[in-house]
UniProtKB/TrEMBL annotation:
It comes from Enterococcus alishanensis. PROSITE patterns: ALDOKETO_REDUCTASE_1, ALDOKETO_REDUCTASE_2. It comes from the Bacteria. Pfam families: Aldo_ket_red. Residues 15-261 form the NADP-dependent oxidoreductase domain. This is Aldo/keto reductase. InterPro entries: AKR, Aldo/ket_reductase_CS, NADP_OxRdtase_dom. Keywords: NADP, Oxidoreductase.
Length: 287
């Protein structure tokens, strides 16, 4: 598996398995197990997904039955908004580790750019120095917010996990983050199927040229930008398909055609929307 080296030397498998919206405990446990069986070594969850315990069980089953070691796996979780402060971040991460059944996570992220991000970041720096997080970073932060965090603290975020897909390509932000030494990770690479993405004429024609699916074309497009990609499926065949992207390359013409699909806006919501910020601030969970 190709990896991306972070600014602290930690290496991340470039393809990861996302667990967002897999809320049924048995389904989440089985999905993680099947993902490891398919060849994924990078698993992504979050406090707000409410599935850390099930994800942990899937990881444990994968280690026990498939024969992978903990050291071969790269596990990410994220601190939700209500826990984004110095004291709450530390306590919530301890609870996350307990739910996951792990002594450490490989990547710990601030999930959203709200609440006391500076206090939470200091707690995460401490957790990293204690070995409870191999790498730390942020999610959904603008480039300016990520740089601000870096300039006034000890550690530069190792990762920024943001929405990237053919309709929201974020080309300038990817370049700017990389220039700051911050690795880029893509959530919702398939835009959750919005705007008929899986039947898109441009992506379909490119896929036909290589005998690949639209999903594989999108994953390959991101891999060729050295962007870490999180895909999600509960179907083992699709899990395997999303990994099979290292046997072809896109041409400059292919990439130019994909560039025409960019609308330059989120396919979901704006993090600058006051109502969305209020909604996140009010979304409390037992974490």
């Amino acid at each position: 598996m190709q990896t991306v080296k972070l600014n602290n030397g930690v290496e991340v498998p470039i393809l990861g398995f996302g667990t967002f919206q897999i809320t049924d405990p048995k389904e989440a446990e089985d999905a993680v197990y099947e993902a490891i069986k398919a060849g994924y070594r990078h698993i992504d969850t979050a406090q707000s997904y409410l599935n850390e315990e099930a994800v942990g069980k899937g990881i444990a089953k994968g280690i026990a039955e498939i024969g992978v070691t903990r050291e071969e796996l790269f596990i990410t979780t994220k601190v939700w908004v209500e826990n984004v402060s110095y004291e709450k971040a530390r306590a919530s991460v301890e609870r996350s580790l307990k739910r996951l059944g792990l002594d450490y996570v490989d990547l710990l992220l601030i999930h959203q750019p709200f609440n006391d991000v500076y206090g939470a970041w200091r707690a995460m720096e401490e957790l990293q120095s204690e070995g409870k997080a191999k790498a730390i970073g942020v999610s959904n932060f603008g480039v300016d917010r990520a740089v601000d965090l870096a300039e006034f603290n000890q550690a530069t975020p190792q990762v920024n996990q943001i929405e990237i897909n053919p309709f929201q390509q974020q080309t300038e932000n990817i370049a700017a983050l990389k220039a700051e030494g911050i690795a880029v990770e893509a959530w919702a690479p398939f835009a959750e199927g919005k705007n008929g993405i899986f039947k898109n004429e441009i992506l379909t024609k490119i896929g036909e040229k290589y005998g690949k699916s639209v999903a594989q074309v999108i994953v390959r497009w991101l891999v060729e930008q050295d962007v870490i990609v999180l895909t999600k499926s509960v179907n083992p065949d699709r899990m395997a398909q999303n990994l099979a992207v290292f046997d072809f390359s896109l041409t400059d013409e292919d990439k130019a055609q994909i560039a025409t699909l960019n609308v330059g806006a989120s396919q979901f919501f704006s993090h600058a929307d006051p109502e969305m910020i209020k909604w996140m601030a009010g979304r409390t969970m037992d974490v």
